[in-house]
Amino acid sequence: MKLYSYFRSSAAYRVRIALNLKGLDYDYVGVHLLRDGGQQLKPEYRAVNPDGIVPALVDGDDVLTQSLAIIEYLDETHPEPPLLPKSPSDRAFVRSVALQVACEIHPLDNLRVLKYLKHQVKVPDEAKDAWYRHWVEAGFESLEKRLAADRRVGALTFGDTPTVADLCIVPQVFNARRFGIDVTPYPTIARIADHACTLDAFARAAPAQQPDAE
Questions:
Q1: I need a labelling partner for 113 at 20 to 30 A (CA). Which of 104, 136, 139, 197 fits?
Q2: Domains of the chain
Q3: CA 112, CA 34: separation in Å to the nearest integer?
C-alpha cells in the first residue's frame, strides 16, 4: 500500500489512524499542500487524484480517494478490528458523528477554502480566522450536546473501542487547538480526543510523527 498524505491534513490523519489500527504497513508519500504553490495541484499528483486533494491510497491496482471511503474499504478488506459497531442503529450513530465532522465542520475550514477566502475573496486574516472559529465552534457545540447526552459514549465515542467517529474527532480537535480554539466548552469532545491520543495507533498517526512533519 502507498498513502499520499500531508502531515497536517485532517483527512489524511484519519486514514493514518485506520491503517495503524488495522496493523497495515504502507509507504508514505508526502504531498506538501503549501510548498511549490501546492504539490497537490501539480500534474504528477493529479495523475493519481484528479481532485488535487489528499489523501489517496494505492492498493495494488486500486487508487482510492476520500478519507471515509478509504476507511470503509480498509474495514471491509481487513475486518479486524472493526471500526463500526454491529447493530444498524449503532452503526448509524457512529457514522452520523463521523459525517458531522467530515461533512459539516471540516469542509468549511479546510486549507483550500481558507486560501480562497484570503486570496480570491480578499478577506483580511482577522476575518478569515473568525470564519474558521465560527464554523468549528458551531459544529462542536451541537456535537458536544449529542455526545454528552448519549449513553453509548464511553472513553471514546462508542464505548471504549475506537470507531470511525474517533478517527474524525481527533484530527478536528488537533486542528482546532492549532488555530487557538479553546475546547474547554466541549468537555466530552476534548475528553474523547485526549483519551484516543493515548492509544498507540492514534499517537503514531499524529502530525508530528510523520516523515514530512515540519
A1: 197
A2: 2-81 (3.40.30.10), 88-201 (1.20.1050.10)
A3: 10
